[in-house]
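To: structure subgroup
Subject: Chain for Friday's discussion

All,

I'm putting the inputs and outputs inline so they're searchable in the archive.
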Amino acid sequence: MIRAILFDAAGTLFFLTKTVGDHYTYVGREVGLDLDAQDLDRAFHAAWLAMPQRFAIDGPRENDDKGWWCELVGRVFDQVAPSLSEFDRDNFFEVAYEHFAEPGVWELYPEVPGVLKQLQKDFQLAVISNFDGRLRFILQHLGISNYFSYIFISSELGADKPDPEIFCRALKGMNLSADGVVHVGDDPERDWKAATAAGLQVFRLDRPRNSLCDLLDWVGRDSNPEPTPKAFGAPLGPTGLQD
């Protein structure tokens, strides 16, 4: 029997209103830098892939993972503006870090509020995300924070997807066994594979082939469907998201 449903955040509940490069260009203008959005997008993709994998630790990560994001932004500027001063890099990062928690930067997928309202009647709902404390502000701005009994954040749990340990720690926090919990997410490695390895049932979100509306019917079935979704890469985040 399903007792609880875990949701991935970015790419599942909400999405960026523009590309990462567009947002970085906007922040650059705010601090007096003239940056090209396409160059920033390419650099971000490369920097994201080059960031080393982190292993689970006991307890929260230092400084709510802010240092990790600062390193990521530094790698972006190593590519697009290697001669930029340390002062300008730091200034850009601080403004960008706050920018990605502001209203209007993220937008809900249209079906999300209605689906959460329906599911809340019968299930305990939670978010589990490779993010930091800014996620709570984002969920509040989007008007959906009250639907969730728990918000599990990698920087606070000390474990990141695709390590199944993040799901094990979330289950412990909810005092539930894996066989009573479904995870909903859009990423084959970080969501589908990792949650399955932790023993959870998985709803494979694969827009536009399906949406969260299909979850309403799915949770009523006796067994999981056998979808054959295409395998696609991990969704990219801003300087503050790696869902």
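Points worth raising on Friday:
The chain has two domains: 4-15+107-218, 17-99.
The chain has ten helices and seven strands.

D.
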